[in-house]
Structure formats: C-alpha cells, structure tokens
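Friendly challenge for the regulars: who can give me the structure tokens for this chain first? No prize, just bragging rights.
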Amino acid sequence: MEFIFNSTEGTLGDGVTTLRGSVDIRQGTLRITADEAEVKKIDGRVASVTFRGQPAFLEQDIEEQGLVQATANVIEYQVASGIVTMTGNADVKHPQYQISGELLTYDLNIQHFQGSGDQNGNGRIHILLDPELINNDGDKKNKKNEDKMNDADPGPDSPAPGTTDPGKEIN
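First reply, four minutes later:
Bragging rights claimed.
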C-alpha cells in the first residue's frame, strides 16, 4: 500500500495515524483520494483506512469490467476483507450501472453492493442502468441468433443458394 499526503500525526507502529492534505493511497488498481485519512494498524499491518473528503474519491480498474469510480463524504476501507463502506452522498459509477444513496457497502473481491438510504434505513437508493449498453448486448445476441438462422439450411420455399426467387424483380 502506498500513501502520499501533506502532513501526518500519530504513530508509525500499531495504532492510529492521521494523514492530512491531498491524501492519495494506492494498492494495485485501487486508488483512493481524500482530504484526510485515518490509518489503523494492528500487529504491524494496516487493518483499515477511513477517508474523509468533500468528497473522498475511490477508483478501481476491474478486470474485464472496466473502471469503477465512487465518491462519498466518508469512505472506510477494511483492508483484509476488501469491504468498502461509503456514507454521505455515496455515488458509484460502473461501466454498466450507477448507484447512489446515503450508505453503500461494496465488496471489492466479488464486486457486490449493498445499500440503504442512511444508517437508519431512511431515504432511498437510486440505480441507473445504461440502456445503450443493455440494448447493445441484446442487439449483439439477436444478431448472432439471426446469423445462425440465416446460415441454417434453406427451407423448402427458399430458392437454392446462388439463385433468385422467381417471384422477385431484379433491378
């Protein structure tokens, strides 16, 4: 895990360290930026990082899916489990959908979401599916099915390959 920031207060050993000013943390394809971060270490390992910002920003390039981007007032990353909890104006953009609400939980390992309006269950979740992407996938499937049907043997009423239908005019 790589940490870049302007100032710090705390311990480099076990305990809590606060990072301030243009915090930028990277781990593999995961990148999180924020105004401030609290890093909790246990047994010499980073256990969790809590990011605060207006907003804090997360992005991860997911193999075969594309770039996922998220913003929230607070992003809490549990390193060992790969669980990210976003609270306060949480918004996630995925190549196939967008989801927003007051509280979203995202499992980085299996790309699974859970959400609610807020911690008390008030408010609403908003999901936007990309109809063009869905339609394009459907169009591709329909095109493949049409191609398969066109490649099939002609029916008894179809002209033989390389001939014309006697009922059709040729211009």
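The first helix runs from residue 131 to 151. The CA atoms of residues 22 and 107 lie 25 Å apart. Your move, everyone else.
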